[in-house]
Amino acid sequence: MKITDVTLRKAKHYLFVQIHTDEGIVGLGEAGNWAYLNATAAAIEKLAGYLIGKDPFRIEDFNQNFMRAQYFRGSVIMSAISAIDIALWDIKGKKLGVPVYELLGGRVRDKVRVYASPMSKETDPESLVNSYRQLKEMGFTAAKIFVNGPMRSQKEGRDEFFCGRIEDELEKVRLCREAVGKDFDLILEVHRGMTLPEAVTFGRAVEAYRPMVLEDPVPPDNYDTMAEVASKVGVPIASGERFTNLREFEVLMDRHAVQYVRPDVCAVGGITTAKKICALAEAHDVLVIPHNPLGPVSTAACLQLCACIPNLGIQELPGFCLNGAEDAMVRSPLRYKDGCLLLPEAPGIGIELADDAEERYPANERGGAAARRAFDGSVKDW
Predict the structure, then answer these.
(1) pTM above 0.70, yes or no
(2) Which domains does the chain have, with CATH numbers?
(3) DSSP letter at 323?
(4) Which of 19, 73, 127, 208 is the right S-S partner for 87, CB 3.0 to 4.6 Å?
(5) Helix or strand or coil: residue 330?
């Protein structure tokens, strides 16, 4: 079997790649660099020239080749490699007639617990409470809460001052905990939005509400800062969604900076590299929460990974697809039941794009070049 063509498809704010073979088998992948999809598409097109005429089974070799062929890497290149890698695994599974997880050691579970990741920052108390009650009624047993501060200052900066900021976020968590009860886990998404003193103060105060995760309490660029938060706070820390290199995860865990790692299968080098990160985490007694802010191919690829690793924490399910909003993007949507996604049994990654995906979901790139700003006009981390 040989690779004959590589094509790109854009739907909504997603970039999909299809790798075609001379046997009619088509592999499907997705790129993770959602803010720079045009640049990532150009990178895929360049890498595609190397693939034509080659055996698609040589996945590890391709992965290593693309990472080492030039000394340029970074998020655009790694997202391109990731999309290709996922599509190659899809081809291999389809050719052999098995789900990808069977090629990675076989499944260790029958379903994957997921948490709802609503992509909104509700601040009205009544609306906030109602939205989390609705998630529980939908069958979810866990959900994300954004606690990364106001998108825009509403009180001339007072909602960004130290004490007010901490108290506002604590009140948000308190309301959600009361709304869903104790049989429900909360993932607190700081989104790199706190300083070190804010993160430590908030992290200690919020322990009373028993959150499952404090995600990216500070920017992850300084491993020692993240480790300091982890050493002073009783809530388990998660980080790694912005990483694009296996060794970044090694350093993070070596510093004892996290209890959960968040590899993004569409950004870190595909299923190939993500599986290595999971093994590395297992050796460090760290659990895995795959990052999944993207489309159905990302979710399907994450499921293949979750199926076969022993140290899974939980899986993110993005708010874009809640209530079946993206079901028509694929021919047969993944199945959800009682707070879990069921493992697909179809060969490969288990899904196929619908023929009219682009028409149903017109391309609309997410994200812009303008940074968030604090009340005084200074730039805030995204």
Answers:
(1) yes
(2) 3-99 (3.30.390.10), 102-347 (3.20.20.120)
(3) G
(4) 19
(5) strand
Answer left, alpha or beta for residue 344, where phi above 0 means left and psi between -120 and 50 means alpha: beta
**20 belongs to the catalytic site:** no
CA distances from 310 to 107, 272, 273, 301, 363 (A): 9, 17, 17, 17, 37
Report the distance separating Cα 213 and Cα 198, nearest Å: 16
Task: Yes or no: say if 87 and 287 are a contact pair by the CB < 8 Å rule.
Answer: no
Place of tokens 């655009």: 76
Q: Which residue do the tokens 């970074």 mark? A: 74
Q: How far apart are CA 266 and CA 33, in angstroms?
A: 8
Distances (CA, A) of 37 to 351, 358, 369: 22, 15, 13
Active site residue 191: yes
Chain segment 155-199, per-residue pLDDT in tens: 677 788 899 899 999 999 999 999 999 999 999 999 999 999 999
Closest CA to 147 of 175, 180, 178, 114: 175
How far is it, in rounded angstroms, from Cα 88 to Cα 258? Answer: 31
DSSP-derived 3-state class of residue 221: coil
Judge whether 93 and 348 are in contact, CB under 8 Å. Answer: yes
Residue pLDDT, tens place only, 122-162:
778 999 999 999 999 999 999 999 998 877 777 677 788 89
At 207-260, the pLDDT tens digits run: 999 999 999 999 999 999 999 999 999 999 999 999 999 999 999 999 999 999
**Three-state SS across 113-177?**
EEEEECCCCCCCHHHHHHHHHHHHHCCCCEEEEECCCCCCCCCCCCCCCHHHHHHHHHHHHHHHH
The 10s digit of each residue's pLDDT in 262-321 is 999 999 999 999 999 999 999 999 999 999 999 999 999 999 999 999 999 999 999 999
